[in-house]
């Protein structure tokens, strides 16, 4: 019985991966989606270009080179956390979740499909950061260790944030309400050492920032791209690589457990009539 159940779960995972790839290709054909993928990298490009020629106070190190790795970490966390949350309400209203509910382990497949979708779209946005990144590349590390570590951090970051984003998005009743999650993410970013060193914050805010993935993803990206001596600006004067993977691993386990449970509970209240009513409500609003 256990073997059969495990086989069904693996079938659901494979189906989710295929579905995620199909959704990714569809997303890349949507002009609005593609514009959004280009928008944030374009904003960061302008910021980095304005930083050219400026150095970190008290150091002969490019300010843009100091900021870019944090932007990479932030983009991984932000894309994985807020992206899925915005799609949950829509998928509930158009019946996607109801159909997933009707298939064995459908919520597991749904979750892995979203990991593929938002992993691919976040990767596209990160790739677009390469262009402005070359303007400050002189002070950054680009060796084999850098690319391997960045690849691992990206995969771990997606697994740590997408399921949590799905679980949090399930708590909102409409797509408009998910803007609260984006607002909350912006608040967390301010205490996560993304825009300025976390060591400059009060100790209690440092602990708050370290409780969430944003800090650790930013730290991991900095450890991959910055010279070893820049670790002196971090907590404990170290990149704390083991701690980084440990905390992100906890978030992965938490998300993979919680997301299917929350989705199943949410869809228990769903029905064909509820989906039709939600669709009529959206159409009445002119969407």
Automatic annotation (TrEMBL):
It is found in: Cell membrane; Membrane. It is a multi-pass membrane protein. Its main location: membrane. Pfam families: ABC2_membrane. Belongs to the ABC-2 integral membrane protein family. The keyword Membrane applies. Residues 32-266 form the ABC transmembrane type-2 domain. InterPro entries: ABC2_TM (IPR013525), ABC2_TM_bact-type (IPR047817), ABC_2_transport (IPR000412), Nod_factor_ABC_transporter (IPR051784). Keywords: Antibiotic resistance, Cell membrane, Membrane, Transmembrane, Transmembrane helix, Transport. The chain crosses the membrane at residues 34-51, 71-90, 111-135, 147-168, 180-205, 244-263. It comes from Myceligenerans crystallogenes. This is Transport permease protein. The keyword Transmembrane applies.
